[in-house]
Every structure is written in C-alpha cells, then in structure tokens.
Design goal:
- By secondary structure, the protein is an alpha/beta fold.
- The protein contains nine helices and ten strands.
- The chain folds into two domains: 163 residues, P-loop containing nucleotide triphosphate hydrolases (Rossmann fold), CATH 3.40.50.300; 83 residues, P-loop containing nucleotide triphosphate hydrolases (Rossmann fold, 3-Layer(aba) Sandwich).
- A hairpin with a 2-residue loop joins strand 9 and strand 10.
Length: 248
C-alpha cells in the first residue's frame, strides 16, 4: 500500500467557543477518489479549508505527500500540487473562458506578471483541449459571466485542471447544477482521475453521486469522524443513517 497523499491526524479547529472539528483523522490514498459526507454543520468545509491552508488548525497534523503543511499558506500548498474548488464558483465573469484558463496556469511555475504576457501556443492549445474535455470548447470566447451556473462549474473544473494538480479537492461539485448536466460532470471527474491520474477528495451532498463515484467515504457528524468505509458499508451504517435522519 503506497503512502497516503493526504494524512490528517487528530486535527481540531474551533471558532470562538464553537468546535468545528474535533480530533479528526483520515487518509486520502494516491490515485483514488475519496468522499467526505455529513449533515450540514458537520465540519466538512472547515476541514477542507484547514487542509488547503485557509485557516490555521488549533491542534493536530496535516501532511501532503509526507510533508507537514498545516502552517503553510494557500499559495505554497497550491504550488505543491494541492488545489480545491468551491461551492460557489470562483470564475472571472467579465473575462472569456480562454482568459479564465490563462489565469489558471500552474501556480508552481507562474509569476503574477505571466498573466499579462501572451500565452504560448502550447499553453493556448492545452486550454482549448481542457475546455473541450469539459464540453465548453464552443463557448471558449464567450464571457464566463454569460454561462449557466452548471457551465460555470465546468469552467472552474477546467481551470483547476489547467493548474496541473496532483490532488483536486472539490467542495459540492454538483450543487446547483441542472440534473441533466450531473452525469456528464461525474463522467469527467472520473476521467480526470483515470486519464490524468488526479487524486480526488470530494465533499458531496448528493448521495447517489458520491456512492457511484468514490472508492471510499468518510462521514462526519457534529465535527467528529463518525464512520469510514466503502460506499456500500457507509450506505448500510446505522450511525450514518441516524446522523442524516436526525439532521432533518
């Protein structure tokens, strides 16, 4: 068994008197798709934010490829190859799709000034290839703000791929997307995993989506790790069923 690409060990985080995460430990294996589920307020997004450096943890350890990253900032972590997407899309609405892609050239090699330089034919070709991969090639010259919400999520996914991540952390990738687009997005996420070799760690509320996609799933409740197992094990875990039923 290869070393996990992400190792979270007894991580705790509080905001004022509110405990968001309490001694959470989990591992994300290289090359796999790992899911993170739990009722609203269970601490999923807080944990994601901690892993990518958005706020310091109170206790514990977070390692990426064996390197302690819990005290690094967002940019340094992204340069290591760990990239995340958000529940609300973070695109540049007044730029076209190709311009959005150019802003997303790899953190590891790009300086701020590179944004204003004319992209190389190779960079341009890669951007077009990735827009084609997510089904947006025909819209590559349209302003990103004119796309539907689902198409904006696909653009954000392409932008994340443009960054050449080793690990992609996705926060609710199917939230707000028209059901007819969801299957296409799932297919592209799977293909990014198998064809590009990108490890994925995914928060998802849509149970059908995550059960069909993840190799293993962690479930949080009330800021603590409740369960971990295969999709089938999680689906049949009474603690998980109770956590969701009790949340409504």
């Amino acid at each position: 068994m290869s070393q996990p690409v992400i190792e979270v060990n007894r991580v705790s985080k509080s905001f004022g008197g509110v405990v968001a995460n309490h001694e959470i430990s989990l591992e994300v294996p290289q090359g796999k798709i790992t899911g993170l589920i739990g009722p609203n307020g269970s601490g999923k997004t807080t944990l994601f934010n901690s892993i990518v450096g958005y706020h310091p943890i109170d206790a514990g350890s977070i390692k990426f490829k064996g390197l302690e990253i819990s005290e690094l900032n967002v940019q340094k972590i992204a340069r290591l190859g760990l990239v995340r997407t958000f529940q609300q899309t973070r695109i540049y609405g007044k730029l076209d799709c190709m311009q959005n892609m150019m802003i997303s050239i790899p953190h590891r090699t790009a300086a701020w000034i590179d944004m204003f330089a004319k992209p190389s034919p190779k960079t341009q070709a890669r951007a077009e290839q990735l827009l084609d991969f997510v089904g947006l090639y025909a819209k590559r010259r349209l302003l990103a703000g004119s796309l539907s919400f689902g198409q904006q999520k696909l653009l954000e996914f392409a932008m994340a791929l443009m960054n050449e991540p080793e690990v992609l952390m996705l926060d609710e990738p199917t939230a707000g997307i028209n059901p007819t687009l969801i299957n296409g997005l799932i297919d592209r996420l799977r293909r990014a995993n198998t064809e590009f070799g990108i490890t994925m760690f995914i928060i998802e509320h849509n149970m059908r989506v995550i059960m069909n996609m993840a190799d293993s799933i962690y479930c949080l409740a009330h800021g603590e790790l409740l369960a971990h197992g295969s999709p089938e094990q999680i689906q049949n875990d009474q603690r998980v069923i109770d956590a969701y039923l009790g949340a409504h």
